[in-house]
Amino acid sequence: MKLGITLKASLQQSLTPQQIQYLKMLQLPLLQLEQHVRAEMENNPMLEEGSEYEGESTSDSGSAEGEPTIERAESTAAEDAASAVAYATTEDGSTSSPGSEIQEGAAEFDPKDAFEFYKLIWGEDATSGSSTDTRAGDDDDDDDPIFQFRDVQTLEEDLLEQLRYLHITTEERLLGEYIIGNVDEDGYLRRPLDEVLQETNDRFAEHNLAIHAHEMGRGKQYAQDLFDDIDVPLNPLSMKHAELVLRKVQALDPPGIASRSVQECLVAQLRTIERPNAAQKLALMILTKTYDAFAMKHYHIIERQLGVTQDYLREAIDVIRRLTPRPGAGTIGPEVNTVTPDFTVEPTEDDQDFLITVNDSRLPVLRVSNAYEKLKKEARFHKFNKETREWLRKKYEDAKFLMQAIRQRKNTMLRVMTAIVGLQQDFFRFGPEHLKPLIYRDVSEVTGLDISTVCRIVNSKYVLTRFGTFELKYFFSEALMTDDGEEVSTRIIKQKIKELIDAESKDKPLSDDKLGKDLKKLGYNVARRTVAKYREQLRIPVARLRREL
How much is the pTM? Predict the structure, then answer.
């Protein structure tokens, strides 16, 4: 084996941290971008929020010079930072600027003097006690309604509060709290009950050990294992106790919570009815004795086994339909998902063109802090060490880049949205039934942007139109050829399938083969397997499960 040293020349591309940050900002929707900007404001003291008038003047000046780019942001930040440290002194005290005569005559800055540093940063006048900082006295404006959050009680908190009013033992109450804590967003107990019971009994054993240790004088070692406000030993519970506690939890409001299956959920809701009528009693019998036949909609089997007529059965099924299969309904946690449109597309007054707006109303108007400008001017008179100068330069570059990146993001998003509106004009004029086939490559060719950039902008973005709010992905779909040789969007085919199913006879629903034949009559040549695929994407069950009495 021979060892040696060789030289090799290679060329490779790499993204700068600023470019990576810009690409991430392109992908963020409005609310997440607002959180990102405000986090940057907290981490970078060079950034502060300005007025809307300042933001408009800044954007006007930027647009007059042309579209801002990342390269311009980096060069501008570097030039400004260089001017800030051009008059700074070196480590050995020698000057490196034309203003060295002024610097030698000035008093040397002592960083230990906090009052001098505060005066330098914020323009504090010791004699008047006033400050030139525009943010002074703005504490009264903290109650901005945008950032006010109403304290809403979650479903879990409501259930725990109801549990405290039940006449049950302490052990049963603690087990009930464990059960409620394991309920998912839909209101179901997905975890096996025996595991929850075992974990609760183990916790009881740790609590009893801690009490015994406390009596023996070693309480500090096991104090963390004690339940709050409980200073007596706890008895382990059996599986029979666990089933009883689960039944009581399922009787809380909303009824059926913490069920382990849909059948158990529906049965629990019916059992909470104090004086059930005949239809409700039959509904309970259907769910307990003939649930499999009911799930498969084999109504003739139910009629034969229970000995009821079709009219009587129809009333019971109507009762079951009014029950809630998801008692949690996504209200277990405090999160509420709302859609904030990133774009607004409106027709002009003459209805000949469209007005496209990028929604950035929630973003703060950024500017470089006045404190930094003062510090930059005073740098020529005072001595700063190398770390301080580097910190000031880096923070200033980050602030300038973020401001430029937000403007460039807005321009890029506007280009993509303008291209989508131009390619889908019929949709924005006449509605969703006029949607055309569109792929990312089409938008990329119109805008001159890379396909990956188009994907980042389209991802998780929404647009508000006069026909409703749509995700940008909605405008992209594959093409299907009609009998007339015209390309039509697959979304149109799905909409036609949904319309046919909505208009079908409920006692004799249309099969996939019959749907394909009806689409053929409308001019859409779609195979049966394609119809089945589109129906499943629409989350519509097969014909047998759509049958009703």
Answer: 0.55
